[in-house]
Amino acid sequence: MIKYIFIRVTLIFSILISLSTSTWAQGIKFEEGSFADIKKLSRTSNKYIFIDCYTKWCGPCKVMARDVFTQDTIAQFYNKNFVCYKSDMEEGEGREIARTYSIAFYPTMMILDSTGKMVHKIVGGKNTMELLAEGEISLDPNRNLSGQILQFRKGKSDTAFLRKLMLATYQIEPEVQKEISKAYFAQIKKTDIIRPEIYPYFRDMETDVLSETFVYVYKNSDQFVKVYGEDATNNLQQKLFASLDNFGRAGNEISFMKVTEYFINDTSKLKKMMGYQFRSIYYVFHIDQDKLVKSLDEWYKYAKNNNDELNKMSTLIWEKTDNKKALEKGASFLDRSYFLNKDYNSAMLAANMYLKIGDKKTALARAKEAQRYGKEQKIDINAADNMVKDLSPAK
Predict the structure, then answer these.
(1) How far apart are CA 147 and CA 164, in angstroms?
(2) What SS3 state is found at 46?
(3) Where residue 2 falls among pLDDT bands split at 50, 70, 90?
(4) What stretch of H or E contains 82?
(5) Sheet holding 108-112: strands in order across?
(6) First and final CA of the chain: distance in angstroms?
């Protein structure tokens, strides 16, 4: 009888233990509801928010959901210390969360306070031990991301600290990272940037192409090429192109034009052409016709013997603007292109440009020439045939 009771007690105890750990065995408990509900729950429970920012197509996100979030040690730590939430960054509230917190890489996991303020940010797939370590760091105000940024704001500026913080904020808090990079390189002699223990921080972290540091490296790029090869030049060019893209999308004309000066002030005619090309493209999309025409005039000085570039620029003008002065410029470029290379493509591009301008007579003449060259080239001339048919006087 005693043995029977002992077995029953042992069984009940085992069941209770199993029930008490079943929550952890199921993995992280992700709460349901809106983001506002999660912040409210964070306030009432006095816990930070852990949010898994994922997308359906993200492979590493799926791996973490399957292999990491389900681990008992992870579940115990995160369920105890955080209100856990997950959101698809491409659906519903997730889109706004992605915009608000500049989520650009997946997976990204964030630790937020109850007001939604960023405390810590974790980017990229992590294994169990790494995610535990990040969780512990996030709870330490001296080590989490917001705490370190606060230390920086209060004046902590030793180079070892700044190097570490640059790495921590890289591609996570880009605007803050720019400030940290500026503070770091302000303490570095320009002539020391080439040193192997310093150059990687410039190569990987310095994204401000208008900074004194970037200007120095650009002007002295030959020295860096001697040490680091053509990768040094490629790195500079990639940063310039990325900046042009960013400033162009933002409509930041002043900064965009400053970046084009790197090309315009170069001794290479090709670089000069590229600089004025960038300016012209900017004004096509941001609709400043007077500046566009002026920029096109400068661009033409370097592109007038390049058939392909003449055609590309003219096509862009034809597709993106209705301004007559710009269209007339495009037509003159196509006349030059046609002079350089009399073929179906050049003739047909000119025909379309003159038609858009309203010069049907010249458009018809170019379309007929396109027919002739197309037959000689033995290519499809349906477009030319249709234009000739449409523009020819009725009999």
Answers:
(1) 13
(2) coil
(3) very low
(4) strand 82-88
(5) 82-88, 48-54, 108-112, 118-123
(6) 117
